[in-house]
Amino acid sequence: MKEFVLKYIGKKGIRELSIFISFLIFYKISRYIAIGDASTAFENARKLIAFEKDLGIFTEPIVQGLFLSKTGLIKFLNTFYMYVHIPATTVFFIWLFKKHNSRYYWIRNGFIAANCIALVFFIFYPCAPPRMLFEYGFSDTLLEISGVNLYSGFFSNLFNQYAAVPSMHFGNAFLIAFSVILYAKKSYKWLVLLYPLFVLLVIVITANHFYLDAILGGLIVIAPYPLMWVISNLAQYKIMIVKRC
Fold first, then answer.
1. Cα–Cα distances in Å, from 114 out to 118, 142, 175, 221, 231?
2. Contact by Cβ (8 Å): 183, 103
3. 10-24, 77-91, 191-205, 231-245 — which one is most confidently predicted on average?
4. Distance of alpha carbon 134 from alpha carbon 157, whole angstroms
5. Percent helix, strand, coil in the chain (nearest 5)?
6. pLDDT higher than 90, residue 171
7. Is the bond leading into 166 cis (omega within 30 degrees of zero)?
8. What value, to the nearest 5°, has the Cα angle with vertex 179 and ends 129 and 27?
9. Burial state string for 197-207 with b = 16 or more CB within 10 A and e = fewer than 16
10. What is the chain written as a DSSP string?
11. What pTM does this model have?
């Protein structure tokens, strides 16, 4: 077994797998610990809706309403939301590790940093998702159509109910598309832009996130890289100075 793993993954692959598993465990535990009180989460959600109304973009209930009668499609979108996010991100990083190894570590570090930033939001800015705000015309499609209860039982231990801001479903999808466009060489690589657009549609139709959640998620996944670039260049400059001395 050990020889098989070493042959197909390699020592570096095992190390990276260990890093991701450790971070995933830390991330899940942190999200669970970060659950805020319900009153604050609902107050923040209502403030976010008021802000979207001021911007003239609060159309999520209308968009969701267009699809509610399509039960089969809604069930598919709920399944996609629940089960595709982590596997898709895993496949992306395996591709990056195998095909663009020199770029992999840069993207990986930014990914981990971005998700740590997201944890700060989950801790200090709990926010209820749209599916919990029936008074604004939202429906909880997971519960009402797919019969998935996130509020009690097995799934309640896996999800932080008040972690709507930011949407890392969209954020990570945006990072995947951005990276593929940067590094892939095939001309059809631009089709990957459909992935974050589809994820945006999914999170709105299933009422798991607001538009602003997605926008913030997209900004957060990109934010670490300029800072990492500055730090990297300063470190190289310092090394050059030391060598000259």
1. 6, 27, 10, 5, 16
2. yes
3. 191-205
4. 23
5. 75, 0, 20
6. yes
7. yes
8. 45
9. eebbebbbbbb
10. -HHHHHHHTHHHHHHHHHHHHHHHHHHHHHHHHT---HHHHHHHHHHHHHHHHHHT---HHHHHHTTTT-HHHHHHHHHHHHHTHHHHHHHHHHHHHHH-HHHHHHHHHHHHHHHHHHHHHHHH--B--GGG-GGGT---HHHHTS---SSSSTGGGT--TTB-SS-HHHHHHHHHHHHHHHH--SGGGGGGGHHHHHHHHHHHHTTS--HHHHHHHHHHHHTHHHHHHHHHHHHHHHHHHHHH-
11. 0.88
Q: For 209-223, how does the pLDDT look when each residue is reduced to its tens digit (9 = 90+)?
A: 999 999 999 999 999
Tokens standing for residue 214: 């997605």
DSSP 8-state secondary structure symbol assigned to residue 43: H
Give the rounded distance of the alpha carbon of 134 from its chain centre: 24
- Which residues, 6 or more positions from 4, have their beta carbon under 8 angstroms from its beta carbon? none
In this structure, the dihedral spanned by the alpha carbons of residues 187, 189, 193 and 199, taken in order and rounded to 10 degrees, is: 150
What pLDDT, in 10s, does the model give residues 11-40?
777 888 788 778 777 776 666 665 668 899
* Number of residues written out for the chain: 245
Which of the four pLDDT bands, split at 50, 70 and 90, describes residue 242? low
**pLDDT for the residue numbered 234:** 79
* Alpha carbon distance 43, 53 (integer Å): 15
Provide the residue type at 193 as one letter. Answer: L
